[in-house]
Write a structure and sequence with these properties.
CATH class of the largest domain: Alpha Beta
Largest sheet: 5 strands, mixed
Number of helices: 6
CATH topology of the largest domain: Heat Shock Protein 90
Number of strands: 10
CATH architecture of the largest domain: 2-Layer Sandwich
Number of domains: 2
Strand order of the largest sheet: 5-7-8-10-9
Distance between the termini: 49 Å
Structural class: alpha+beta
Mean pLDDT: 79
Length: about 270
């Protein structure tokens, strides 16, 4: 019989138990127990499991991130057709279209670079300009903001953080997108994006005046493929991705909500040196 056991000092061994047989008498007289050190193999397996989770998060995030720029490009193309013959309007739409294409290219490039790099490079941190990031995410969601008549207020008391750029973008994109999607039927979305310092963390909060979340659903919403409202477009992966990314970066996420009044997500990000 084989089984894996862990010692009090957290090391792993494979324990093999074999019967000790006295052949002349054809009977068993005890057992032979051997221990094989497999701590190295267990650590490798844990590393691969962590790596698989990281890449799974990136793939899900990429699928979410490219939707914004693609939808925005489609909307701008419609605007461009409507602006035909109006030189000033055409130039403005073309400028926005160019920025959307740039955002899409940047997202895909970051993903491609990460796939072709080492595991350590996949976690590369850079100074992220939060003001510019908010602008880029708003541009990616421009159509949804316009269609919903959403008003987005920005209050950035912390303007920069050193973290993986693609993670910060995905977190912000998902939270802002949800704030628009889950709007109350009788009022336009009023959204506030805020950053502030809290001890060792930079806190990114996204507040809205939307549908709100039932008190007992505060943890369920972060599970894979969870959708509380079926008539709203989505896959139920957004908040699952956000929580996983935040956890991987050593942070945490909290939600405060009142049904029918709105929701605030607070993301505690720990900048790296």
């Amino acid at each position: 019989m084989d089984r894996e056991v862990q010692t009090p000092d957290k090391r792993w061994y494979q324990m093999n138990i074999l019967p000790y047989i006295i052949r002349k008498e054809n009977r068993t007289n005890g057992v032979i127990i051997t221990f094989l050190d497999i701590n190295g193999q267990i650590e490798v397996l844990k590393w691969y499991e962590k790596l698989n989770k990281r890449y799974e998060s990136v793939i899900y995030a990429l699928l979410h991130d490219i939707k914004g720029p693609l939808n925005n490009i489609e909307g701008l193309m419609r605007m461009l057709r409507g602006a035909s013959g109006k030189e000033g309007n055409t130039k403005q739409v073309l400028d926005m279209l160019n920025r959307s294409i740039g955002n899409l290219r940047r997202t895909v490039t970051e993903f491609t670079d990460m796939q072709g790099s080492s595991t350590d490079s996949a976690k590369t941190t850079v100074p992220v300009n939060l003001e510019r990031m908010v602008e880029d995410v708003q541009l990616g969601l421009k159509d949804k903001i316009h269609e919903s008549n959403a008003q987005v207020e920005i209050e950035l008391n912390e303007s920069e953080i050193i973290l993986p750029k693609r993670n910060v973008r995905s977190i912000l994109y998902n939270l802002l997108s949800n704030a628009i999607k889950y709007k109350a039927p009788d009022r336009a979305p009023a959204i506030c994006i805020k950053t502030e310092k809290s001890g060792e963390y930079t806190v990114l909060s996204v507040s809205d005046n939307g549908l709100g979340i039932e008190e007992d659903k505060g943890e369920v919403i972060f599970k894979r493929c969870t959708r509380l409202i079926n008539d709203v477009e989505g896959t139920g992966m957004g908040l699952f991705i956000v929580k996983r990314m935040v956890k991987e970066m050593g942070g945490k996420i909290e939600v405060e909500s009142a049904l029918g009044k709105g929701t605030t997500f607070k993301v505690y990000l720990k900048g790296q040196q």
